[in-house]
């Protein structure tokens, strides 16, 4: 059980940090290329792997949820963002609304990352 609790904490912090990096990693000049790569991997997962696993598929979410299921925690929402909103802020929104905002913020971050990675200094 100790390993599973550690894995739960690891995925919580790693996945949350990855989400924030995807949203904001285009701001510092030093992380722009890595941010674009991370966003492209995220988009690949959501849209290409999502063909087989469902739109928005994320391996981090699947692995984290598998750990939580083994811990006996079965009341997980489909969206990891929904999970974070509930866990961190005790907020619950309709799943469709969370998905729309998640996609919107992803696209904003992707466009910002593309713009700053491709513009001439």
Structure description:
With 121 residues, the chain is mostly helical. The chain has one domain (2-118). It has five helices and no strands. The radius of gyration is 15 Å and the shape is globular.
Task: Write the SSE topology.
Elements: H1 2-24, H2 32-53, H3 59-70, H4 80-89, H5 95-118
Helix pairs in contact: 1-2, 1-3, 2-5
Distance between the termini: 52 Å
**C-alpha-based Rg, rounded:** 15 Å
Instruction: Outline the biggest β-sheet.
Output: none
Strand percentage, roughly?
under 5%
The overall average pLDDT, rounded, is 95
Please state the oligomeric state of the protein chains shown.
Answer: single chain
- Number of structural units classed as domains: 1
Task: Spell the H/E element sequence.
Answer: HHHHH
What percent of the residues sit in helical stretches (DSSP H or I)?
over 70%
Count of DSSP E strands?
0
User: With helices defined by DSSP (H or I, 4 residues minimum), what is the helix count?
Assistant: 5
Structural class, please? mainly alpha
Principal-axes geometry comes out as globular
Low-confidence stretches: none
Task: Summarize it.
The protein is mainly α and 121 residues long. Helices cover 75% and strands 0% of the residues.
Brief descriptors of the model:
121 residues, mainly alpha, 75% helix, 0% strand
